[in-house]
Amino acid sequence: MRGRKAYGTATEAVGRAAEGGRSLGYSAERKRIAAVGTLLTVLALAAGRSTQASDPPVRAIRFDPGYYYNTGLSADVLAARLVNHWADHGVNLVYFYAYSFAYGARYPTRYLYNAQEDFGRLNLLQRIVSEAHRRGIRVIAWVYVLRHKGAWEARPSWRSLTADGTPYREGFDQYFLSPHHPEAVTWWLGFLEDLLRAVPDLDGVDLAEPVVNWWGDTADHSLAATYAFHRVHPRVRVGGQEWLLFRADALRVVLERSTELARRYGKEVHVTTVMTPEPNGTLISSDAQRDATGFDLDGLLSGRFRPDVVNVELIFQQWASLYRNPGVFTPEWTARAARAADRKVRGRARLVIHVELSSFGTASPTVPDLSRVLTSLQRAGYSSVDVYAGHLIDAIGGWEALRSALLSRIAAHGR
Question: Angle, to 10 degrees, between the axis of helix 241-264 and the axis of helix 286-293?
Fold first, then answer.
């Protein structure tokens, strides 16, 4: 997605992983009923909404309003035209990029350190939600976890740092806040709650690409992180296996608390994550991914507050370019990787496959490539997809191909 990051090789990841109260006035019966009710509430919050067999496949696109400022249309007209276009082409869910970590909100907000884009002052998010619901389309607010320019600039002690004390970044992907800093985490949860209150009709939130760093043990070496680690492991060096597990646990707790908060507002929770392959196309293990990035998918799905949806980025052209192996990383590779991703998720959340039309190096997907990816996924039984992004589909003239794939007879019978 926007702000695509650099990766190490999967072999490097595997190598690093190897290194290293009583109630007044209640009768006993009323107490028992109350206790059962409380337990059911807790279980509902923890487990989230279960996916029913009758649920239709997810047919999603990503929408970044930043690419739609020069249309000459009013916000109302733009929202109506976009939603009608999406609905006419088979889309039933939109991931709306709600807060650009670099530029600001696309919804009204006065939360501490937040900025607003023009579309925020015009409340484009609410306008899209209202139009989408009239056409039977759900809207999920897509936000990047613990990445925020305003908070990063205002509170230097909250920044995620590298070992030499410089702020961690990967190209455009920057403004990382430390999951170890209690004030930063409290602020982040308030940020999320502000969004849920600002647009109460949202269907859910997407906690996008949660990582400590994109590869290795580059972050987080902030004072908050090292202090927290040495309180628990006073005689253990930073950078070893205990350190990798410790930082992953901190990020997992942030995700669980975020999920618990969203559930209190009755919202779905999606988590979008990269699954990295080896040069031969085989996905690396969840443990290796955890140690390389700090994101522990298996730990998150094994906990109390797991997401409703895991949206897995399987982008063939990304790896074809990185590994210089287009013979392995074909559009059809996506379906093979989806089966492996399914085995990792193991039914603990709904699986959606994220595909992209972004260019990586000299690898630029075409309309036929998009058709091949979606057709191969459908034939393998994976019809719940998320396509990045609307503006790129516009650019290559891919809407009819997308509609044909999303509404095919094969897709209607997939997951």
Answer: 90
